[in-house]
Design goal:
six-stranded mixed beta sheet, ABC transporter domain-containing protein, about 15% strand, Rossmann fold
């Protein structure tokens, strides 16, 4: 892959799509061959279909900035406007009221209170705030509408973030330049999606 090129990994359930991502992210070792990235792991951000939101009464800003908490600096204040703008674009700005703003600790568990779609939208805001070179997205939009999915991928492109996605929706083909189709056995095909 080169910068600006985005990869979709597809195939039937059990074909090894998520396993392939685990190898790419070096969670699992490979027996032969090698995988080379021109970037370090700190420039890669992973988003799963059930993104992780820590418990413990963290504020909305802390959840979005996770896994790091940025100190109160001028950057934090610039991020405030961006976070609020992204929340409007992704139609989760109602969470500002529910959470008492960006910086108030909450008295609920994020994973149990927010819908899967809200968590997925917030995880995309997290990606944009962190600005990784590469986002690895494992079924990361399966709980949102096709319209919301389009907005989410458009935001990644607008912010210059490359991505590798795993998913089943035919609409995902619209946001990727290459598709790797796993057949569920030992085969695969590549398809160029740019006309």
């Amino acid at each position: 892959m080169v910068r600006g090129q985005n990869l979709l990994i597809s195939g039937p359930s059990g074909a090894g799509k998520s396993s392939f991502l685990r190898v790419l992210m070096r969670i699992w070792d490979i027996n032969s061959g090698n995988i080379t990235f021109g970037i370090t792991s700190e420039h890669i951000l992973h988003v799963s279909q059930r993104p992780y939101f820590p418990s413990g009464g963290l504020s909305l800003r802390q959840q979005i900035e996770f896994p790091i908490h940025l100190p109160q600096t001028e950057q934090t204040y610039r991020n405030t406007g961006l976070i609020e703008e992204l929340m409007v674009k992704l139609k989760v700005h109602h969470l500002l009221d529910r959470c008492g703003g960006l910086d108030s600790p909450v008295d609920f568990e994020w994973q149990e209170t927010l819908t899967p779609g809200e968590l997925q939208r917030l995880s995309f805001i997290r990606v944009i705030i962190h600005r990784p070179i590469l986002a690895i997205l494992d079924e990361a939009t399966n709980a949102v509408s096709v319209d919301a999915e389009k907005t989410m991928y458009d935001l990644l492109v607008e912010n210059g973030i490359n991505f590798i996605s795993v998913g089943h929706r035919p609409s995902l083909r619209n946001y990727h330049s290459v598709e790797l189709k796993l057949d569920g056995k030992t085969g695969y095909t590549f398809e160029n999606l740019i006309n």
